[in-house]
Write a structure and sequence with these properties.
ten-stranded mixed beta sheet, alpha/beta, globular, 298 residues
Length: 298
């Protein structure tokens, strides 16, 4: 069953039933609760660490740079890593981190090729005759190992949105590789942009998890947040402007700035290959800075 937690005492309403899957259907965890849990972890000496990758579209190249830095220099962090979570492109990178870290270079090459193919279309992803979701599926199938669903069980948490109720669900249990692929596709499905038919999973229709929780926070341990948009996340581009105004977008706080507006456009309309590689390098550098600051650098 999939349950949505309500503030009303002793009352629970169920989301659409999804047989044999562990789903946590609830309002996104707010940052006040996250800070409280982090304090408890510090008091009790817990070392549980999670990674959360924000919804990013083609700015997922930034996440790939972060992942490379963590794999190269973050052994101290990774030794305490319990789970990875994410939405949309962030969910894809979280999956690579958990199931196929050895395929990181393959993932980069697919990202560049995918972006190039979208750019070559007259109207981008919405060009008639171009199947965005089919190309994404083919890329996922190329990269995921045969036992990806087993590696992902209880270690990968994917944010998806019910197409009718617009309620968020976190999927963390997968009975087959195909079901894992369906959940990942659902988390990346932006209506109209990616197609007209939401992804069907266990009899229900789902769309991009970024609509309802674009930066999931897990309930146990410290969740390290990664975002290609400037904001208060643990790993994100530094804000270089003077604006102090922050916007809250589906559970993620971002700085209201010209740079972030440009980034938002590039998430859907992929930039050139040099720009994608620059984003990847920026992610790498920002992750190295974070590891040094936290004394996790190796």
């Amino acid at each position: 069953m999939c349950f949505e937690k309500k503030q009303t005492k002793n009352k629970q309403n169920s989301c659409p039933e999804i047989t044999n899957y562990m789903l946590a259907c609830q309002p996104p965890l707010n940052r006040t609760r996250r800070r409280r849990r982090r304090t408890i972890c510090e008091i009790t000496g817990m070392t549980v660490v999670n990674l959360s990758f924000a919804a990013a579209g083609f700015l997922g190249a930034y996440h790939l740079g972060v992942t490379e830095a963590l794999l190269r220099h973050g052994d101290k962090l990774l030794s305490s890593l319990k789970a990875c979570t994410g939405a949309s492109a962030g969910a894809l990178v979280a999956t690579i981190m958990i199931t196929a870290p050895d395929k990181l270079q393959h993932c980069k090459e697919f990202t560049y090729r995918f972006a190039s193919n979208v750019r070559s279309q007259r109207f981008g992803a919405v060009t008639p005759g171009y199947d965005f979701m089919l190309e994404l599926r083919e890329g996922i199938e190329e990269i995921l190992p045969p036992n990806a669903h087993q590696l992902a069980n209880e270690r990968l948490h994917v944010s998806i949105t019910h197409s009718k109720t617009r309620k968020n669900c976190m999927v963390s249990s997968f009975t087959s590789r195909e079901d894992l692929i369906k959940v990942l596709l659902a988390s990346c499905f932006v209506p109209v942009y990616a197609g007209m038919k939401p992804v069907e999973f266990q009899g229900q229709k789902w769309i991009d998890g970024g609509f309802t929780d674009s930066l999931p926070i897990l309930p146990v341990g410290r969740t390290i947040t990664v975002s290609p948009f400037s904001g208060p996340q643990d790993i994100s581009p530094a804000h270089k402007g003077i604006s102090k105004l922050h916007l809250r977008l589906a559970n993620m706080s971002v700085v209201f700035s010209k740079d972030n507006i440009i980034r938002l456009n590039q998430a859907l309309f992929p930039p050139s290959l040099p720009r994608l590689k620059a984003l990847e390098q920026q992610g790498y550098q920002d992750a190295v800075y974070f590891l040094k600051k936290e004394r996790w650098m190796q």
